[in-house]
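Hey team,

Sharing the Cathepsin C exclusion domain-containing protein run so nobody has to redo it. Sequence (110 residues) first:
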Amino acid sequence: MLLLSILLLYSLNLCDTPADCDKTQIIGKWTFQIESPSSQPDLNCISHDDIAPNSTIHVSLEEPNIAKSDKGDTGFWTMVNIEGISIYLGGYHYFALFQYIEAEDEAGKT
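Structure output:
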């Protein structure tokens, strides 16, 4: 039973995304490419092939949780764990997970 519990806890750890961002890394200017809303239940958030942005917004994320668009809208934002952000701005709710790409540096470390 103990072994099963350990395996289950380990498998939960594998489900997490490897992105690990701090709030200080999020503060600043962002450009978001927005796709038209879809009612399709088979939306695949993993595949980048399905994304067809048709508009762009520029947002400034400020302390403590202020979001400002280049169009003058003001709203708020929050971190989603350490893996993404949620922004309420101009009557819309935007959500994004941070993209993580594993790459090696010059020393061969990931």
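The helical segments are 2-14, 23-26.

Ping me if you want the raw files.
A.
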